[in-house]
């Protein structure tokens, strides 16, 4: 009877293997999704001021004003075209713009998480456990939680990259020479290029990996060129649109933030160093997985694509000087390949006992013990340590963007009919909520300021170096606002500093306090 029972149980498993694997996949996905939501709750309702700039473009597009931030000369003050369009598309169904950005944020992160689980889908116990730990590394990372709700394009970018890498692996390995196997990843990488203007870096990395892994064979050259041409078409298409619509080769954001200097290089190296240390043991585990994987022909393709993508993005982060936002925003495209590498390395590690032991029970016990150890590390050390990091903690404390809501609505009620001209340093939430015409005194959304940089450009705070007080005063703004923080009214940035030292400003403007209702 026991033997007959075992035979029936084995046949039952064999007959339902596919559904069983998908059941495990969905169970893991559900658990990781809940953990991500819990992690996000630690930072809610954080949203960056630059997110409101993107939302302003979405809102004005829906209002029929095109892809513009304010009236006047159109300026490309966003660097996330696809994100702006998708947010606007969601709002056609009556969804609030902020809620649409959060909805897309969760959808993007869930999709990226699903790619990790799919690549390590539970065909074996080792694959299942490796994918689970890789997923935990991803969802328990503070930057992933912060930028799920940060309102910018990181979730969309990660979703496109994750599935772009997964769908490209057969081509990298040379297993599939069908043209269709190149089209899908090409389209995904092309959409990534519409999501961020620096996404072509990942295309360069992927193209190089195809050639290196397949030994520069003629078929490898063919596949690499065909693959690269698809995102290139997307990139050229947006460039043509930019030239026609804005009259520029580059977005305004590149002119404001793409300033290379020795000072910014040092800041970028500092940013990368401390951002990686905030992730604890994970970067070292991913590096060890990559080194071991290079020696294994079966794992080499995945190690090359994830390792090359992480390396090229890390170099880029250093080159541009890092970032100014809470939550290590520019490390999110690094955390994703690190999670893939950890999952890949642990799948290999979990498969070792099965190679040397014939006792299935012993293999299961060893793998579950290792899984428990890694899970304890992630829950008791990795996750809490990130919450102690001051850059991550800043996302818990930073809420000044929301002060633009009551102030903006007050201005809209008091000055909306006159369409008073507003000059601001915080160019996101206040213009968004006030619906007033505005001047961005930091230049992100202003044509003149970006094309007339100061002589010491590259020596100041990244993205906040531009300004021209005389120009702003020549526009004769009705309201000038330097901060959205109580108790601060003296300027800190160039336009404001030049303005308060100009006799015209002291003659025509007076400091005024407004009392607003609470949020």
Descriptive terms for the model:
3-stranded parallel β-sheet; mainly alpha; 24 helices; 519 residues
Instruction: Give the H and E element order.
Output: HHHHHHHHHHHHHHHHHHHEHEHHEHH
- Main β-sheet description: 3 strands, parallel
Distance between the termini: 70 Å
Question: Which stretches are low in confidence, meaning pLDDT under 50 for 5 or more residues running?
Answer: 5-10
- Give the strand line-up of the largest sheet: 2-1-3
What is the 3D form? Answer: globular
Structural class: mainly alpha
E-strand count: 3
- Give the helix tally: 24
Helix content estimate? 55-70%
Using only C-alpha atoms, the radius of gyration works out to: 25 Å
Overall pLDDT score: 89
Strand content of the residues, in percent?
Answer: under 5%
Could you describe the 3D structure shown?
The protein is mostly helical and 519 residues long. Helices cover 67% and strands 2% of the residues. A 3-stranded parallel sheet has the order 2-1-3, with no helix packed on it. Helix 13 packs across helix 15 and helix 14 crosses helix 16.
Quick description:
The protein has helices at residues 2-15, 17-41, 49-62, 81-91, 97-119, 125-139, 142-148, 154-173, 180-195, 200-213, 218-245, 252-257, 262-277, 282-294, 297-320, 332-356, 360-388, 390-397, 404-415, 429-434, 447-450, 469-474, 494-500, 503-508, and strands at 422-424, 438-440, 479-481. With 519 residues, it is an all-alpha fold. Helix 4 (81-91) crosses helix 5.
């Amino acid at each position: 009877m026991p033997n007959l029972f075992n035979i029936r149980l084995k046949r039952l498993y064999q007959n339902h293997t596919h559904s069983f694997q998908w059941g495990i996949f969905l169970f893991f996905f559900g658990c990781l999704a809940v953990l991500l939501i819990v992690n996000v709750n630690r930072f809610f309702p954080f949203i960056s001021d630059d997110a409101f700039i993107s939302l302003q473009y979405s809102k004005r597009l829906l209002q029929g004003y095109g892809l513009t931030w304010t009236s006047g000369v159109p300026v490309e003050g966003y660097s996330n075209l696809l994100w702006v369009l998708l947010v606007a598309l969601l709002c056609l169904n009556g969804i609030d713009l902020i809620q649409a950005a959060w909805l897309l944020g969760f959808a993007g992160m869930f999709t990226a998480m699903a790619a990790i689980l799919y690549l390590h889908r539970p065909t074996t116990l080792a694959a299942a456990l490796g994918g689970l730990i890789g997923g935990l590394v991803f969802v328990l990372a503070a930057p992933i939680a912060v930028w799920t709700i940060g309102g910018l394009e990181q979730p969309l970018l990660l979703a496109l990259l994750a599935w772009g890498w997964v769908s490209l692996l057969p081509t990298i390995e040379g297993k599939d020479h069908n043209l269709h196997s190149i089209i899908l990843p090409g389209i995904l990488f092309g959409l990534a290029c519409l999501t961020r203007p620096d996404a072509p870096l990942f295309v360069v990395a992927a193209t190089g990996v195809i050639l290196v892994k397949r030994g520069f064979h003629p078929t490898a050259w063919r596949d690499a060129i065909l693959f690269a041409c698809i995102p290139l078409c997307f990139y050229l298409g947006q460039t043509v649109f930019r030239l026609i619509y804005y009259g520029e080769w580059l977005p305004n954001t590149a002119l404001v933030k793409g300033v290379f200097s020795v000072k910014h290089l040092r800041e970028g190296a500092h940013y990368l160093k401390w951002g990686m240390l905030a992730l604890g043991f994970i970067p070292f585990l991913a590096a060890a997985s990559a080194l071991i994987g290079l020696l294994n022909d079966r794992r080499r393709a995945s190690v090359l694509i994830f390792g090359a993508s992480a390396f090229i993005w890390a170099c880029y982060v250093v080159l541009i000087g890092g970032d100014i936002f809470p939550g290590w925003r520019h490390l999110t495209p690094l955390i994703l390949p690190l999670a893939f590498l950890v999952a890949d390395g642990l799948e290999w590690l979990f498969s070792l006992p099965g190679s040397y032991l014939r006792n299935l029970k012993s293999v299961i016990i060893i793998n579950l013990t290792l899984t428990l150890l890694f899970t304890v590390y992630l829950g008791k050390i990795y996750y809490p340590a990130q919450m102690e990091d001051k850059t991550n903690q800043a996302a818990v404390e930073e809420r000044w963007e929301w002060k633009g809501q009551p102030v903006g609505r007050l201005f809209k009620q008091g000055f909306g009919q006159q369409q008073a001209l507003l000059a601001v340093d915080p160019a996101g939430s206040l213009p968004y909520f006030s619906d007033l015409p505005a001047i961005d005194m930091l230049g992100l959304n202003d044509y003149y300021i970006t094309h007339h940089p100061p002589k010491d450009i590259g020596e100041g705070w990244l993205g906040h170096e531009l300004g021209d007080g005389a120009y702003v005063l020549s526009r004769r703004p009705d309201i000038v606002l330097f901060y959205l923080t109580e108790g601060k009214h003296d300027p800190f940035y160039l336009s404001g500093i030049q303005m308060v030292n100009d006799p015209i400003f002291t003659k025509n403007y007076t400091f005024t306090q407004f009392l607003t209702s609470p949020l």
